[in-house]
Amino acid sequence: MWLELRIIFNRLSSDSSVRVVVLSGAGPKAFTTGLDVQAASEDGPLAPSSSEDVARRATSLRRHISEFQDCISSVEKCEKPVICILHGHSLGLAIDLCTCADIRLCSSDVRFSVKEVDLGLAADIGTLSRLPKCVGSASWVKDVCLTARTFGAEEAHRVGLVSGVFEDKGRAVNAGLDLARVIASKSPVAVQGTKEILNFSRDRSVEDSECT
User: Interior CA angle at 79 toward 77 and 83, to 5°?
Assistant: First the structure.
């Protein structure tokens, strides 16, 4: 799925007929439910191997994680603004994906969690790098990442992870589409340029950003 995600967002990025991208989950109860630990441990790069030495296994796993990171980063690298609509269970990859988006909205029933420490892992697909830049409190980020606790829409809105909370998924999606229409009515050159400068400036000084 994540390999296809990169293909889709690369196409959306270069398609001149696309002005804004709205990303939402298809199911009624969840945006993402997190890693299937049992399945991952039985097959694929995370499955134990007795035939591969530690160094080769580490190299293979590093390549796998790097490709996974690149696929998720395609959302952030998309030239078009991306609006992410979250609802229900939004665990694990939901945080990775939504922190790549430009604007985040959610339904009132959303339940977020950075669950990796409960699995004996550090979140390695982007959450630990991007979440601190999406909210204004390093203390809060460490709180939710170190405890793996669940938090809801009100808390996400209070810390700035989302900019709007709506009664249910349908209303949240409609709000996202309305916002997309407003952005799409603007000059695409101005919109894409604004996104690029904002993203570039996030990690650099004012002086560096003004020279771009």
Answer: 85
- pLDDT per residue as tens digits for the range 48-84: 665 677 788 778 777 877 888 899 999 999 999 999 9
Cβ-contact 66, 45 below 8 angstroms = no
Closest alpha carbon to 156 in 165, 169, 147: 165
Cα angle value 171/177/182 (rounded, 5°): 130
Q: By three-state DSSP, how is residue 160 classified?
A: coil
Strand partners, 83: 22, 103
CA distances from 168 to 27, 78, 175 (A): 13, 27, 11
Summarize pLDDT for 142-182 with one digit per residue, the tens.
Answer: 999 999 999 999 999 999 999 999 999 999 999 999 999 99
Tokens (6 digits) for 119: 């699995």
- As a three-state string, the secondary structure of 3-69 is HHHHHHHHHHHHCCCCCCEEEECCCCCEEEECCCHHHHHHCCCCCCCCCCCHHHHHHHHHHHHHHHH
- CA-CA distance, 67 to 89, in Å (whole number)? 25
Reading the block at residue 122, the tokens are 């550090």
Instruction: Give 3-state DSSP helix, strand, coil % of the chain, rounded to 5.
Output: 55, 15, 30
Q: How many residues does the chain have?
A: 212
